[in-house]
Amino acid sequence: MSGSRRLDALRAAGVGFVAGVPCSYLKRFFAGCNELPAGAYLPAVREDHAASACVGAWLGGRRALAAMQNSGLGYCLEVLTSLHLIYQVPLPMLVSDRGAPTDYEEHRVLGQRTRALLDLFGVPWREARSGEEDADASWLVSASERDGRPAALLVGKEADS
Amino acid sequence: MTRAEAVALALSLLADDDIVVAADGAISREAYREHDRPRTFYMLGSMGQVASIALGLAMTRRERVVALDGDGNLLMGFGGLAMVGGLKPPNLHHVVLDNGCYATTGGQPALSRVVDLAAAALGSGYRWARRCHAAGDARDALHSWLAAPGPAFLDLPVEAADADPAPRVPMTPERMAQRLRAALCDSRT
Fold first, then answer.
1. Quick check: A21 contacting B, CB < 8 Å?
2. Measured between beta carbons, which residues in chain A are less than 8 angstroms from residue B80?
3. Could you read off the pLDDT of A44-83 as tens digits, one per residue?
4. Rounded to two decimals, what is the model's pTM?
5. Where are any strands of DSSP class E within chain A?
């Protein structure tokens, strides 16, 4: 057990590799990642590199998850569209859900368009719920593997469980 | 030495179970033409991500992973050097076929003419990094690089001229990915 029910549920759903860039909404999750065995967690320098490393890990036989703040989706677009979506590589993503009207300015523009952006590129998403970590994890894995594509679990501040 | 000759030479020195990540554009097309192998991943787009894909492979596999990168490509995803240098996978060998320009788009000069890529790799934490200075030394340089402790980095200058462009890889991207994954997952090490 890692101290993060979210991470434990994803591990139980078969996630064997995580690459990501931290977000304060995902503190508990990333604290758990830092305790994973060597080779199971890559602290990436930017979100597109995280998503690309997940392609390598998937080719290597692991179920690989990318975790990030929703602002990182912008960096990821090139990789999602010219790697995952054309090679049909599954990518479960854990994405923080910043950008509420009460959130800081720098989060609002992309934050308020996160769902529209995911819809535009055909990335299925769902909002994570605290207490439903196992159901969220199995949805995320099956949504990404059904057609071999990215899928996103959006995590609000209260769902970093 | 042309880039295609350098690609062919590098591939000829590898073991059958080595895993190759070939950069998008000319490097992938030449890698396919010179020596197609089931354990090569041919990138089509996502410029700048060669080292990151190779790192994901190196962290999850025991076999040697060889990244065939370009200079413009590496510069675009320079953060990849920090990830490889920071994580230090001993089985990752990274070579840059350095023509000092963006050959595919018309030969516009690249900053690799002034940026010391090997010094950047060393400063990022690679265990071994060199620049090969003369074309006649390429074979020896590639041998030393493959024998060095990983992560190892070689900056290999190649000609900018592209007299004999290789055609696109005649495989769907889905097939490229599935072929490599099947080759790896049917023989777990």
1. no
2. 45, 49
3. 999 999 999 999 999 999 999 999 999 999 999 999 999 9
4. 0.97
5. 15-20, 41-43, 63-69, 91-96, 125-127, 150-155
Question: Hey, what domains does chain B have and what are their CATH numbers?
Answer: 3-185 (3.40.50.970)
Residue of A nearest to B89 (CA): A39
Q: Which residues pair with A94 in a beta bridge?
A: A67, A153
Encoding tokens for residue B119? Answer: 């010094």
pLDDT of residue B161: 86
End-to-end CA distance of chain A: 13
Contact across the interface for B60 and A79, Cβ inside 8 Å:
no
Average pLDDT over residues A84-105: 94
Point out the residue among A56, A58, A87 whose CB comes nearest to the CB of B173: A87
Q: Quick one: pLDDT band at residue B31, thresholds 50, 70, 90?
A: very high
Q: Does B54 touch chain A (CB under 8 A)?
A: yes
Here the tokens at position B169 are 């890889």
At B71 the pLDDT is 98
d(CA A94, CA B137): 47
From B48, B173, B184, residue closest to A61, measured CB to CB? B184
Helix B3-12 to helix B138-147 angle (10° resolution) is 40
Q: Does A59 touch chain B (CB under 8 A)?
A: yes
Chain A residues with beta carbon closer than 8 angstroms to that of B173:
86-88
CATH superfamily of A5-159: Thiamin diphosphate (ThDP)-binding fold, Pyr/PP domains (3.40.50.970)
Q: Does A52 touch chain B (CB under 8 A)?
A: yes
**In this predicted structure, what is the pLDDT of residue B187?**
63
**ipTM for the predicted complex:** 0.97
For chain B, say whether A140 makes contact (Cβ under 8 Å).
no
C-beta atoms of B56 and A56 within 8 A: yes
- Say yes or no to pLDDT of B179 above 60: yes
Evaluate whether B39 touches B33 at the Cβ level (below 8 Å): no
Nearest CA-CA partner of B49 in B25, B26, B69, B28: B69
